Amino acid sequence: MSENNLLTIEMLLAMDCFKKAKVVCGLKGTQRIVKWAHVLEVNKVEALINGGELILTTGIGWAEKPHIGAKLLDELIENQASGLCVELNTYVEKIPEEMVEIAEENNFPIIVFKNQVRFIDITKKIYDQLYFPGENLTFQQRLIQWWNNPSTAVMSDISTKPMHPGVASLYLIHPNETVPNFCILGKELGLNIIFTNLASTTGVFLLVSDLNDEIHTLRKRLDKLFNSLPSLVLIGQKMHNMNEVAQSINTLKETNKIYHSLIKKRTLHYDELFIEKLVEPLIRENKLSTLIEEHLFPLIKYDQENDSNLLNTLDTYLSHQCNKQETANALFIVRQTLYHRLDKINKLLKTDFTSSYDRLSLEIALWSFRNIIDKGKINNHLKNN
């Protein structure tokens, strides 16, 4: 099976036969690869699966014995099944808590159908999509595939329209929000939009192309479109044409990582990010605490022990280009008090924070401390060192 034909649980959820299904746990595992679909109504897996199967069941074997269902789930995970689909209200009313806990711990998706479904139809459709993807995959499924693996993105797979400039975007929809009609909203602004839900990110992935072929006005129209909506939006790097779709998706995914690492803003454009791009790898590699510790630890510790605000003083001073009068005004203190604080900061940091190199290092550390989400984690690290 080629890389372009890989099928994930997230892609299956975009199929018509899964429209009324719901992922009740293990949402983070919806990017698991599905190699086959298999109906299994026994209580022991043993050698019945090869790995990569999406298991379909009514739960008849464990309906009244949750501990047996939990044991079966452990075996499915151990034998590398992709996920579990359960038909409710035939034998099982709901998924037992014990099974939910196991699934969450292992990022193993459990999908439920609230009404009776024809497993034979589901298995056939999965078979068709596995072996004849060109004829059976919908454009929504292609979009999901591209999100998971941008290198597979080929616009001719989903569109025969001319390739105009555009951008990949992610709309972070509220849990109870109805997905906006992006097609209609976009056309009013000269934008062609195709989109799909992403179960793994609880967002809506959009590919926007500019019908007006005016890349210099694209940003303005995008802002007008997304500012009219209630939820947050992330925007990747603009494409000069749709042949650059993979790059736009990659930068969008990077923007998504930055968004979940840093203080959240209303809208994030990849092209506007600078310090965020520098800092995000440090967060991902757990090195941001070290950066802050090396440059700011004496001030943070002093403020904690003396209920002072030297860190804020330094931040304000640097943000006002080291202008003492403007800094004093911004802090609502007299200049003499500011002189005293700056002298104390100098002694604690033992560095010339007005030099260009030291100032740049301090400003990046200050920006990071100000904008990261989990300050408690940083503070605990500093207290223990």
CATH homologous superfamily assignment of the largest domain? HprK N-terminal domain-like
Total number of helical segments? 16
What structural category arises from helix and sheet content? alpha/beta
Count of discrete structural domains: 3
| Estimated share of beta-strand residues | 5-15%
N-C termini distance? 51 Å
* CATH 2nd-level architecture of the largest domain: 3-Layer(aba) Sandwich
State Rg.
26 Å
Coarse morphology? globular
Instruction: Give the class-level CATH name of the largest domain.
Output: Alpha Beta
Give the helices and strands as they follow along the chain: HEEEHEHEHHHEHEEHEHEHHHHHHH
If you consult CATH, what is the topology of the largest domain? Udp-n-acetylmuramoylalanyl-d-glutamate--2,6- Diaminopimelate Ligase, Chain: A, domain 1
Strand order of the largest sheet: 1-5-4-3-2
**Approximately how much helix is present in the residues?**
40-55%
Largest sheet: 5 strands, mixed
Low-confidence stretches: none
Mean pLDDT: 85
Walk me through the structure.
- It is a single chain.
- The chain has 385 residues and is α/β, with parallel strands linked by helices.
- It folds into three domains: 3-135, Udp-n-acetylmuramoylalanyl-d-glutamate--2,6- Diaminopimelate Ligase, Chain: A, domain 1 (3-Layer(aba) Sandwich), CATH 3.40.1390.20; 138-270, no CATH class; 283-383, no CATH class.
- The chain has 16 helices and ten strands.
- The chain has helices spanning 9-12, 66-78, 97-105, 119-131, 133-136, 139-148, 182-187, 215-227, 245-261, 275-284, 288-306, 310-319, 324-331, 335-349, 356-371, 375-383, and strands at residues 21-25, 36-39, 53-57, 83-87, 110-113, 166-172, 191-198, 203-210, 232-235, 267-269.
- Strands 1-5-4-3-2 form a five-stranded mixed β-sheet, with helices on both faces. It has a five-stranded mixed β-sheet with strand order 7-8-6-9-10, with helices on both faces.
- Helix 2 packs parallel to helix 3 (97-105) and helix 11 (288-306) packs across helix 16.
- It is globular, with a radius of gyration of 26 Å.
